[in-house]
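Fill in residues.
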């Protein structure tokens, strides 16, 4: 069990020396208990106390890495039950099942199709990350076909430890997640995982058995675990997902302090219903959702939902400051400037694109605030925007004219801008992006 702040405080030196960056040992203890500080920040803690405190500084839900390289995912590692308390860190990974009875050519075609499901939004690349290779005798060959034809991270799914061992050897360096370890085979699966140094997913028959299996696997020195509670109805899998999170964070029960893997594909054959179940599980704590197949209609809504849930609610989403050419602009094309709030960027860029008028869109860093808020907060002032256009944006090297369009809501900055931009014309655009098409079609650069 994790220690409370007061219990931690009693194990600290108590000198209030501030070397850890906290004003007092008590403040440091409270930060440590809530995961906001690292034990290593206190240089004076004794070895005996350090040993006792390691439990307190360990994350309540153990983070486990699956896969390697740029597509590696993290399961677990969450510290709050509700997103508004802080943020969720490790997005629910999405994958599809590869049956080992498929031919190597069919597997190659399938995983290449899955790998192509990539979408660029708000500066991020959204994609499914996983292939779940399922079967027995042909598991190793199927795993090799997936590895040879995609960068997807791989989960091995077989009740036969010998098949898991053979496939794990084929996937050396890819760090697959192997399982299921059950009450009947966990010793053999643990032996394979220990030798290959890979994480294990376990399958229990209910939540009580989850605790039995996590304890048993820990005793077998397998700490990197992902849990399948065994539930195979929408209601039960959702209930278990919430119960696991509550047990780990509220009751601080280490037996349940693991990320989860869920199988909507084993709840229903209907792919649309699998998506509906997955959507509930993305919202409520699943570490991994496994679908029977994936295409754009299946994964895109889940990726967008996931994007929204796993962003920090205390930090607005932003677009990178810079120049965004739209509709293939040239040196005579109009220039628009606005703030870097993602929603502002998407709405404005969408309207400019729809107008078919070649244009340069300048995005200025305004700490993620929308136009009116940024202006009111002094993050989109005339001199600042003028300096950005002239000195930082690089737009003067791309155009032959000297005119810029500012958002209608920021009309008040036009005077200051003209002082910063001698010889420039500052045009005031519409207040609403919906009116940009008409405005741009009629606009003449000075
Ligand atoms: S460094 Fe250690 S002893 Fe010093 S204030 Fe922080 S917790 Fe206390």
């Amino acid at each position: 069990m994790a220690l409370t702040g007061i219990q931690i405080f009693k194990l600290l030196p108590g000198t209030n020396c501030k070397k850890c960056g906290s004003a007092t040992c008590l403040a440091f203890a409270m930060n440590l208990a809530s995961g906001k500080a690292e034990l290593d920040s206190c240089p004076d803690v004794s070895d005996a106390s350090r040993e006792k405190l390691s439990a307190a500084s360990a994350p309540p839900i153990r983070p486990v890495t699956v896969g390697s390289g740029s597509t590696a995912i993290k399961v677990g590692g969450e510290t709050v039950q509700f997103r508004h308390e802080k943020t969720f860190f490790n997005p629910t990974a999405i994958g599809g099942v590869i049956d080992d009875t498929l031919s190597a050519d069919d597997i190659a075609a399938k995983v290449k199709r899955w790998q192509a499901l990539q979408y660029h939004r708000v500066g991020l690349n959204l994609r499914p990350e996983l292939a779940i290779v399922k079967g027995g005798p042909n598991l190793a060959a199927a795993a090799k076909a997936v590895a040879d034809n995609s960068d997807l991270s791989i989960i091995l799914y077989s009740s036969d430890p010998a098949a898991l061992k053979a496939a794990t050897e084929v996937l050396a360096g890819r760090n697959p997640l192997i399982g299921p370890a059950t009450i009947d085979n966990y010793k053999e699966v643990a032996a394979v995982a220990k030798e290959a140094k890979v994480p294990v997913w376990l399958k229990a028959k209910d939540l009580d058995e989850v605790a039995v299996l996590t304890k048993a696997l820990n005793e077998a020195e397998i700490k990197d675990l992902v849990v399948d509670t065994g539930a195979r109805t929408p209601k039960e899998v959702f209930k278990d997902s919430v119960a696991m999170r509550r047990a780990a964070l509220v009751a601080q029960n280490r037996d349940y302090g693991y990320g989860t893997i869920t199988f909507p594909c084993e709840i229903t054959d209907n792919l649309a219903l699998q998506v509906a179940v997955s959507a509930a599980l993305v919202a409520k704590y699943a570490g991994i959702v496994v679908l029977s197949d994936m295409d754009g209609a299946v994964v895109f809504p889940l990726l967008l939902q996931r994007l929204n849930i796993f962003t920090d609610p205390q930090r607005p989403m932003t677009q990178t400051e810079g120049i965004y050419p739209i509709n293939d602009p040239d040196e005579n094309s109009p220039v628009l400037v606005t703030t870097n709030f993602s929603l502002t960027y998407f709405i404005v860029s969408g309207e400019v694109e729809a107008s078919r008028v070649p244009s340069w869109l300048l995005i200025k860093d305004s700490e993620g605030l929308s136009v009116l808020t940024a202006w009111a907060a002094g993050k989109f002032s005339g001199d600042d925007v003028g300096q950005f256009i002239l000195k930082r944006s690089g737009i003067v090297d791309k155009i032959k004219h000297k005119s810029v369009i500012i958002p209608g809501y920021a009309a008040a900055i036009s005077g200051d801008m003209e002082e910063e931009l001698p010889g420039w014309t500052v045009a005031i655009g519409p207040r609403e992006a919906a009116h940009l098409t008409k405005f741009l079609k009629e606009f003449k650069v000075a």
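Residues 5-57 form a domain with the 3-methyladenine DNA Glycosylase II; Chain A, domain 3 fold (CATH 1.10.15.40).
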